[in-house]
Amino acid sequence: MPILQGPFELPHDAVEPLLIGGRPAMGRGEALPVVDPATGETIGRVSTVTPDEVAEVVQVARGALRSTGWSAMLPHARARLLARCADAIEQRADILAELQMMENGKTQVESRAQALSAAAIFRYYAAVCETAEDAMPPARGDYVTMTVHEPYGVVAALTPWNSPLTMGAQKIAPALAGGNAVVLKAAESTTLVTLALAQCVVEAGLPEGLLSVISGGGGVGRALVEDRNIDLISFTGGTSTGQSIARGAADRLVPMILELGGKSPHVVFADADLPKAARAVANGIFGGSGQSCVAGSRLFVEASVKDAFTRLLLQQAEAMRPGPPRDPGSKIGPLASFAHRERVEAMVAAGIAEGGEILCGGRRPEGPQFEGGAYYLPTVIAGLSTDARIVREEIFGPVLCLISFDTEEELIGQANDSDFGLAAGIWTADYRRAWRVARALEAGTVWVNTYKELSVSAPFGGFKLSGLGREKGLQGMRAYQQPKSLYLAL
After folding, report:
1. Which residues contact residue 36 at a Cβ distance below 8 angstroms, ignoring those fewer than 6 apart?
2. What CA dihedral angle connects 412, 418, 421 and 427, to 10 degrees?
């Protein structure tokens, strides 16, 4: 596939094929343009499938499970293949980073780090695959019992556009480690980098047919999750889409892993290391232009240090100026698309209408280098109640809502007053308080005196409307397997 040969120079009139059963193939849908959000230029086109083609792709995966013996392969053999996948991704880290940067506008530094992270995910699940043990519970009679874990079969994976390398790896690697086949629907705007990641896996020696990458509109996604030959659905994306998937899968009771939206509270107590906290708060919301499910978008600052902390925070926000993704000095790149920037701008306008005060940002940056791209300045809004729409809804952009609190009890009530529960951060010098508040916050991940530290070995997922199930860690592989109890009479 040309996209893996680098440097990326796809002619505008060429259409990049999809990956069906491990082989390049053109879909029957209309080709999608690939637009660089940093310049607004169309850099290529990619094939798509129609909803009617989805069943054919799923049948390829089903047939591959039967013909390759992948599900019955010994774990150490699957582990060897996953380790080779990690090697292949590492070898092409620069090409993968280039593709992600050109498709969604992440900086070159962040994109390369995510390419290496994708390799690390495959390497981790190679180890998990080989070392995870089944269980032998104590018997309650004259028999031996054992719990083993079987693959579900064909997995439908749907990935978002904000971090396609890591999100793709977090689904492909554990699903394959668990003995499944995967049909992955890439986000329309980041199909090329997803195809390149999958091609690394195929070239590492994955048996033919076990991995497909398709693209297309909402109808293709619906056809995939509603296909009766899909045995498990794994989706990362917006909450409303996740709810729609859950409704569509309800009649079949098909198991799901849903990693959905967030509106994460970032809490600063008066006794915190304020300069360090200010840096972390700024990176937690403005890094990646705020296009992260765990972005700390609601800032709660103890009232006695609100003014001092705000001054430090605004200094950090001003330092995180946007710039071209290829520029090593750029702290953040553009938003992933022009349509998404319009949505962010609309949310900020709604916040102002509800009484919010713009402390910094709130507009597009000025200058000739920004005119063609979907850039937006880091933005801090104060003066809003916790009932404001911009405080309650996920923006997925570099917009931070600043709220003060007086007591720990008040803080916990405000922070938990949300439909979401994905992540949270706490800054305090009091370890007892840190423990109390961390246990009280309704979130799947809580950071204390740090933020956005992520490990593939730790389970990740959310409470409430932030999702169902967990990815990463041993649980991340077990999520793609179903336990079976065996009894042997003595």
Report:
1. 42, 43, 102, 103, 105
2. -40
The whole-angstrom separation of Cα 133 and Cα 481 is 13
**Distance (Å, whole) CA 5 – CA 295:** 34
Q: Which residues pair with 405 in a beta bridge?
A: 302
Determine whether 200 is an active site residue.
no
Q: What is the pLDDT of residue 2?
A: 53
- Residue 275 contacts residue 313 (beta carbons within 8 Å): no
328 residue type, one letter: P
Active-site choice (53, 345, 394, 471): 471
Question: Are 210 and 68 spatial neighbours (Cβ–Cβ below 8 Å)?
Answer: yes
The catalytic residue among 85, 98, 110, 171 is: 171
Q: How far apart are alpha carbons 104 and 292 in whole angstroms? A: 12
Confidence (pLDDT) at 34:
93
Confirm whether pTM is higher than 0.90. yes
The predicted-structure confidence for 384-439, as pLDDT tens digits, reads as follows 999 999 999 999 999 999 999 999 999 999 999 999 999 999 999 999 999 999 99
Residue with token string 């079949």 = 252
pLDDT band at 136 (very low <50, low <70, confident <90, very high): confident
